[in-house]
Amino acid sequence: MIDFVPDPNLYPFASRWFDSSAGRVHYIDEGSGPPIVFCHGSPTWSFLYRHIVKGLRDRYRCIAVDHLGFGLSERPAGFGYTVSEHTAVMGELIDHLRLDGFVLMGQDWGGPIGLGAATARADRVRGIVLGNTAFWPIEPLANRAFSAIMSSRPMQRRILERNLLVEQFLLGRTGPALTAAEADHYRMVQPTKEARRGLAVMPGEIRAARPLLEELAHEVPALLGDRPTLAVWGMRDMVFRPKACIPRIRSSFTDLSVVELGRANHFVQEDAPDRIVDAITARFP
Predict the structure, then answer these.
(1) Which one of 23, 40, 43, 124 has the fewest beta carbons within 10 angstroms of its own beta carbon?
(2) Which helix (H) or strand (E) holds 110?
(3) Cα 128 from Cα 115, distance rounded (Å)
(4) C-alpha–C-alpha distance, residues 37 and 271, integer Å
(5) 108 catalytic residue (yes or no)
(6) Of 261, 278, 239, which is closest to residue 111 (Cα–Cα)?
(7) Could you tell me the end-to-end alpha-carbon distance of the chain, in angstroms, rounded to an integer?
(8) Beta strands 16-19 and 61-65: pairing type?
(9) CA dist., res. 172 & res. 166, Å (int)
(10) Which of 156, 176, 136, 146 lies closest to 261 in space, CA to CA?
(11) In this structure, how many other beta carbons lie within 10 angstroms of the beta carbon of residue 265?
(12) Active-site pick, 266, 271, 274, 278
């Protein structure tokens, strides 16, 4: 396990643990009311949702998970850290907590991971919140080139040895404005080469997870397309560009509200948490 204790002033939540079939999963479960499950992507963890959970826990039961290999969760030997494997573990946690009538929020890889678990439990899903994500095969050349480059041996070494994905893409010049203490909360949960194995797998999944994404592209509209859905989109995101992604989401859901976050980039939970809290409260009263 990761030997790091979050600052309770920044992350004022009680840690909880679930022994999944693949490894020990860390999550938080705050507040009471209609349940909302928050799924992070790479290279983040449940810390990403701290402002949103604090803003909603007086009205909702807020559950935010750390995927295996991320945050405070275990780095189990033999786990492949693929999107498919993360999806299975997410489903186990939802079943363990006996969630019914839940809203799912996913951003980045948290979108397909959460939606994959949700499609298998569609009768228990109340609604969906999507923030800068995709649940279909990722075709743009820039994304696929990023996948290939980051999967190369030299770049894998930089991810593992220098924490490249955290330092450059989350905490670098184009990342969100964070205090030094907040930045350390992203660094300290990936302290060693071994702790970063899960991070290293994710860029390759842009191409390797294509079969799963093809399945989701069909199953999400078919099984969840009539659920009340909210898209909260960082309009400055160069990863999931709004002009390409929002129309695809509009075509997938019949009851959709879109909130454009004009000043937000990829990590919308850091850039516009208050607007997301307001949008969720209005959409799922």
Answers:
(1) 124
(2) helix 110-119
(3) 9
(4) 20
(5) yes
(6) 239
(7) 38
(8) unpaired
(9) 8
(10) 176
(11) 19
(12) 266
Report strand pairing: 125-131 vs 229-234. parallel
Q: What is the pLDDT of residue 173?
A: 87
Residue owning tokens 């997410």: 90
Structure tokens at 113: 């991971």
What per-residue confidence (pLDDT) applies to 1?
75
Tens digit of each residue's pLDDT (9 = 90 or more) over 189-242 = 999 999 999 999 999 999 999 999 999 999 999 999 999 999 999 999 999 999
Rounded CA-CA distance 12/85 in Å is 29
| Tens digit of each residue's pLDDT (9 = 90 or more) over 87-120 | 999 999 999 999 999 999 999 999 999 999 999 9
> Is pTM beyond 0.70 here?
yes
CB atoms within 10 A of CB 145: 11
> Which of 40, 67, 86, 237 is an active site residue?
237
Encoding tokens for residue 208? 């390797």
Query: CA-based angle 13:56:38, to the nearest 5?
Result: 70
Work out the burial of residue 19: count CB atoms within 10 Å of its CB; fewer than 13 is exposed, 13-18 middle, 19 or more buried.
Answer: exposed
In the residue annotation, 86 being an active-site residue is answered as no
Token look-up 């990403």 returns 48
Contact 135, 104 (CB under 8 A): no
Q: Which of 40, 108, 185, 271 is catalytic?
A: 108
Place of tokens 């964070």: 178
67, 274, 163, 205 alpha-carbon torsion, rounded to 10°:
50
Cα gap 93→184, rounded to integer Å: 28
